[in-house]
Design goal:
heterodimer, A: alpha+beta, Cytochrome Bc1 Complex, Chain A, domain 1, outer membrane lipoprotein receptor (LolB), chain A, 3 domains, 13-stranded antiparallel sheet, six-stranded mixed sheet, 20 helices, B: alpha+beta, five-stranded mixed sheet, 12 strands, about 45% helix
Chain lengths: ~700, ~450
């Protein structure tokens, strides 16, 4: 009986289902009426020492976060570029009253997370630990320990990061863009280098902290499950004793734009893609009346699925993505379109980018584009409010930039009021394509000639230093490759010097990207026929890490992984390395040489020589066009993951008893590199064949 | 259209609920077997919609590793009423965002939108479930995209082959022996007919859970769900699930991988019980004890005191049929991986032999609670948890009762599970060494 009943019921339900199938699925649902977006309120008060406190009460979850922001004027760091960043990282390591270990334990015990940086610090955790959160944040912000050992560690890591970035096209592009847009004497145009970070001392950091980390130029946003009253009490208790200070102010002239477009080029020989920026500085402070129309203009031009994306990727297939962005800023903002495109289409891609920017200035956007942009921007604006931090960010902006209190409350209304004419007006005002900076990081020999149609070209190294030698094709190209090799040999040492050397031992100190350890690299060569050689990498306090010995016939490597014989096909390379001037072999007929051009290597022009050996293996060798010293070498190794490019850079040549040897050598692949710095050399110290036993 | 397959992240985000915050839930099951879980929260006009299909790489046939994830990509190619490339545009025009991911056990699709666009998300997900477009153009396009993704995220990243290398050694018969991204060879072999068949078998209402969290009214949301999903027919096929039981490891497996790296690394993996077991929960606390925060044991010992490691991580890669408890350390330059393993062993041994202090235990609970509350901060976080708990723990309401399960764990339990599962004689040890040191 029960079963029958069930069947009937099912039948009824099935009928219902059948009727429901009349649903027309091709009809897209219309949105329901939108609920008005309510922006949460916030309160502010100011402590006696000038610290402005914003409280965003949100009791939805029992959590709390404290965001401290310093509003001091951007600092020109000069030859110590990187000082603010190092200081910001250093303060995270405990305080004068809570040593690092105890401090870390206390942060972890309450399950909090903490971050610190040059212009602020954040901590977040459970609201029941509110007092502890205030205390821990105040400890590192007001009285950081700033221990010497932490300082050394952070500095070394920073230098490793800079080294790694040197071969990274987008990092180079950022450096060149900053210098091109703002100039080197502007805080936004400063570039951190190994040298600048190296100059920074612990005292500098202590002084920076004392000068700039002051309550009178700070805003503390307290966000979460806390009452206004408790926030005031805790802010007073933990930040009230923080002493105000005379924080320097600074004014910077607004950077000038060029009269006509300028190409800023940085060469990277390994590039198969050009990294492009096209843009200009903009005078658009946060909260400016144009800011909202600008948001829409940028969305249509370079947002996800915007005009640049659809043209350069979907239509032309030049790239995986093409976008544009802009930054509003109190002292100088910026706008730029960006794309990474394959070498062959670099100029075409720039033409298309310029065309799209011009179109924004010349034509009205369509109603469909305008509406899509408004829907997307207002939708994601609403989604961003799910996080109470968004309200805190709005409040900080309002306080910091003196915006109308209802700026964000009226944001959507203002957004919807923007017309196609408004979009064209801001495009004309801020997309200054006729006075643009065109920044390209790529392979000069493939792309640079085709860029001349866009404007004059300025050349830069990886850190945005302008290169005086004006790039390719300034040197004498009638020289033969053989002559370059002969000039190189002559530059290294006279025949007499070279013939007088029977053995040589060189020692370099070694540093490896990301490693806080130092070591040394010792090479011994006995210049018999065949020559013999040993290479050894030693690490301070740990002894030999790897040793390779070549006895003229065979070679073996010894490391912590054990011994291994070097395969026969690599012995020729070792023999060449063992020679005093191995490049002299290139003059033998089994090598073929080709001069492929002149390229900038670290700011100087160098002959690029393609060397092919009898097995067809190609090595690129670069020789300075004036001194003829070898400055760079590039080759590939086949690995199961594909081709691995390896480069070796040499520079800072010095004289050792008439022989010139490089003072600095860097070998790298991808983001990893080892840097050698000359320590000592001995000539004719009496090495014997027995020293090269396997 | 970013589609993540970030397994580590996923696994590190182990989920558990908190005491104070009650999540209101309504559950329904449609006549076609689709389970629907809704959570109403009208604080903000936002809604998250997710569909979890209970299919992951463990449902792949031999020789077809990577298939489930490849298939996930095809599910963005359009449907009978959504043209190719239109999926993203429709979401954008709705003012929303979307994404998807695939693991060993599941495939999850989601959208977050202004709440007045709920119907749009439901329509799109119903299109995906009822008649997604699977054709040669889509398969061939996405085959290349997936291969690029593998190159970008795995092959070109140092150490990232560790998942593949650990799982293939940890499992001999269970399909967990392969990883969701698959192998190039298998990705190349996948054919259109196989995708059609996979769709008909697994992408069916009775194998899915639909979650909606946010600014909804229950009755109205349910009516919309019925409108778009109720007439999707059951698949009706028997859904194949692996029914093999992997025997325990018989001994310690030690191996070396030569990779394009400069720093050696050590990976150690132990087999874990099923992720819905109480022991798995206790193990997740053990992983925290070892590596969460600057004061955690492995970090303090290996990174701060001995300075032999640059980085250490311990995490439960927990799975339905039992996953792996993984610990790893990246060596400092010139440090012997053997010393690292010895120090890791010593710390594990300490957990096995000494009861942890009340303060340290309390720290773990506090960290737990913080993480839970963070996850409750977004509707998408809640939707994800509800689907996960419903499908793999049998009850979405675990989101409200997990705190009781956590409260029942004792310091003794941590010792007990460390002894039961973190057995040095039954584990995988992998050394990652620079290629240049390969003999």
């Amino acid at each position: 009986m029960k079963n029958i009943f069930h069947t009937i019921l099912t039948a009824v339900m099935m009928t219902g289902v059948t009727m429901a199938q009349t649903l027309d699925r091709s009809k897209r649902p219309e949105p329901a009426p939108a609920r008005e977006i309510q922006l949460g309120d916030y309160k502010t008060f100011t402590l006696k020492n000038g610290l402005k406190v914003i409280v965003v009460e949100n009791k939805k979850l029992p959590r709390l976060s404290l965001n401290l922001v310093f509003t001091y004027d951007p600092v020109l760091e000069g030859e110590r570029a990187g000082l603010g960043n190092i200081t910001g990282e250093l303060i995270k390591n405990g305080s004068t009253s809570l040593p690092k270990e105890k401090f870390n334990e206390e942060v972890d015990f309450i399950g909090a997370s903490l971050s610190t940086y040059s212009t602020g610090a954040n901590i977040s955790g459970l609201s029941r630990t509110a007092e502890k959160l205030f205390q821990l944040l105040s400890e590192v912000v007001i009285n950081p320990a700033m221990a010497a050992e932490d300082f050394e560690r952070i500095k070394l890591n920073a230098i490793s990061g800079i080294q790694a970035a040197k071969d990274n096209p987008s990092a180079i592009r950022t450096n060149v863009t900053n210098v091109a847009f703002f100039g080197k004497n502007h805080p936004y145009g400063e570039v951190e280098t190994e040298q600048s970070v190296d100059k920074i001392t612990l005292d500098d950091c202590i002084r920076f902290h004392q000068t700039y980390f002051r309550p009178n130029t700070a805003i503390l946003a307290v966000v979460g499950d806390i009452s206004q009253k408790d926030a005031r009490k805790l802010a007073q208790k933990y930040f009230g004793r923080w002493k105000k200070g005379q924080v320097p102010t600074a004014k910077y002239p607004f950077p000038a734009s060029p009269q006509s477009p300028v190409v800023h080029f940085s060469n990277r020989n390994a590039s198969v893609q050009s990294a492009i920026h096209v843009g200009n500085v903009i005078d658009l402070p946060p909260g400016h009346p144009d800011a909202i129309a600008m948001r829409i203009a940028n969305q249509i031009l370079g947002g996800p699925e915007g005009r640049l994306f659809l043209n350069l990727r979907e239509t032309k297939g030049y790239t995986y993505g093409a976008y544009s962005r802009y930054n509003t800023d109190r002292i100088a903002g910026s706008f730029y379109a960006s794309a990474e495109v394959r070498n062959e289409v670099t100029d075409s891609a720039i033409s298309e980018i310029i065309k799209e920017i011009k179109r924004m200035r010349d034509e009205l956007v369509t109603e469909a584009e305008l509406n899509l942009a408004k829907k997307y921007i207002s939708g994601t604006f609403g989604l961003s409010l799910e996080n109470p931090q968004t309200i805190a960010r709005f409040a900080i902006d309002i306080e910091r930039y003196n915006l109308p209190k209802d700026f964000y409350k009226n944001y959507l209304k203002a957004l919807n009021a923007v017309t196609a004419e408004d979009v064209r007006t801001v495009s004309r005002k801020y997309f200054n394509v006729d006075r643009a900076h065109i920044v390209v990081v790529g392979k000069a020999s493939d792309v640079v000639e085709k860029l001349r149609t866009f404007g004059s070209i300025q050349f830069y190294d990886a850190f945005g230093n302008e290169i005086s030698a004006s790039g390719p094709a300034v040197a004498d190209m009638n020289i033969s490759p053989e002559q370059i090799i002969r000039n190189y040999i002559a530059a290294i040492g006279s025949e007499q010097v070279i013939n007088s050397i029977k053995d040589i031992t060189t020692e370099y100190s070694a540093e490896i990207t990301g490693m806080p350890f130092k070591g040394k690299f010792i090479t011994k060569r006995l210049l018999t026929n065949p020559p013999m050689m040993s290479n050894e990498l030693l690490v301070d306090g740990m002894g030999s890490l790897q040793r390779t010995v070549y006895n003229g016939k065979k070679a073996r490597t010894t490391s912590m992984m054990g011994d291994s014989d070097i395969p026969d096909e690599q012995l020729d390379d070792l023999r060449q390395q063992a020679m005093l001037v191995g490049e002299s072999l290139y003059l033998n007929p089994e090598y073929s040489l080709k001069l492929t051009g002149v390229e900038n290597i670290d700011g100087r022009p160098a002959y690029a020589l393609e060397v092919k050996d009898k097995r067809g293996k190609i090595t690129m060798e670069y020789f300075d066009t004036e001194t003829f010293y070898k400055v760079r070498q590039e080759f590939h190794m086949e690995t199961p993951q594909g081709k691995l490019s390896i480069y070796v850079e040499m520079g800072d040549y010095r004289d050792v008893q008439g022989l010139k040897i490089p003072g600095k050598i860097r070998q790298g692949q991808g983001n990893q590199s080892i840097q050698l710095t000359f320590s000592s050399a001995q000539i004719n110290s009496g090495l014997k064949p027995e020293d090269f036993k396997l | 259209m970013k589609k993540f397959n970030n397994l580590i992240l996923l696994v590190i985000m182990t989920h558990f609920a908190i005491g104070q915050t009650q999540i209101d839930i309504r559950k329904t099951e449609l006549s076609n077997g689709l389970r629907v879980i809704m959570h109403r929260d009208n604080t903000m006009p936002i809604v998250a919609v997710g569909v979890l299909y209970k299919v992951g790489s463990k449902n792949e046939l031999p020789g077809r590793s990577g298939f489930a994830h490849f298939f996930e990509h095809l599910m963005f190619e359009g449907s009978e009423h959504i043209a190719r490339g239109e999926f993203m545009k429709l979401i954008q025009a709705s003012g929303g965002v979307n994404n998807a991911y695939t693991t060993h056990d599941k495939t999850y699709y989601y959208e977050v939108l202004p709440s007045n666009q709920l119907e749009m998300a439901l329509w799109m997900e119903s299109e995906r479930m009822l008649h997604a477009k699977i054709d040669t153009i889509g398969v061939e396009t996405q085959r290349e995209v997936v291969k690029e993704e593998k190159r970008l995220r795995i092959d070109n990243q140092p150490y990232m082959s560790f998942q593949e290398n650990l799982f293939k050694r940890a499992y001999k018969i269970h399909p967990y022996k392969s990883v969701p991204i698959g192998t190039m060879e298998d990705l190349n072999a996948a054919r259109l007919e196989e995708f059609m068949d996979f769709y008909k078998t697994f992408y069916v209402p009775e194998n899915a859970v639909l979650v909606i969290a946010g600014d909804i009214e229950y009755d109205n949301a349910e009516a919309l769900v019925r409108k778009y999903f109720e007439d999707i027919p059951r698949g009706g096929r028997t859904i194949p699930r692996p029914d093999v039981t992997e025997p325990p490891l018989e001994g310690q497996i030690v191996d070396t991988i030569y990779d394009d790296i400069q720093l050696p690394a050590v990976f150690v993996a132990y087999r874990m019980p099923s992720k819905n077991s109480d022991d798995a929960l206790a193990l997740s606390l053990v992983s925290r004890l070892l590596s969460t925060g600057n004061s955690s044991r492995l970090r303090k010992k290996l990174v701060d005191e001995q300075q032999i490691a640059l980085e250490v991580v311990a995490f439960p890669y927990d799975l339905e049929d039992g996953g792996l408890f993984i610990t790893l350390a990246l060596a400092n330059f010139g440090k012997d991986p053997l010393d690292i393993l010895n120090s890791m062993n010593a710390e594990i041994e300490k957990v096995r032999s000494e009861k942890i202090s009340d303060r340290e235990f309390q720290k773990l609970l506090n960290q737990f609670e913080n993480q839970q509350i963070s996850q409750m901060g977004s509707m998408q976080g809640i939707a994800d948890l509800l689907a996960e708990y419903e499908v793999f723990y049998g009850d979405a309401n675990l989101i409200n009762t997990m705190s009781q399960k956590i409260a029942a764990i004792t310091p003794e339990d941590l010792m007990r599970v460390a002894n039961a599962y973190l057995d040095p004689s039954k584990r995988i040890v992998l050394y990652y060494l620079p290629k240049t040191s390969q003999p």
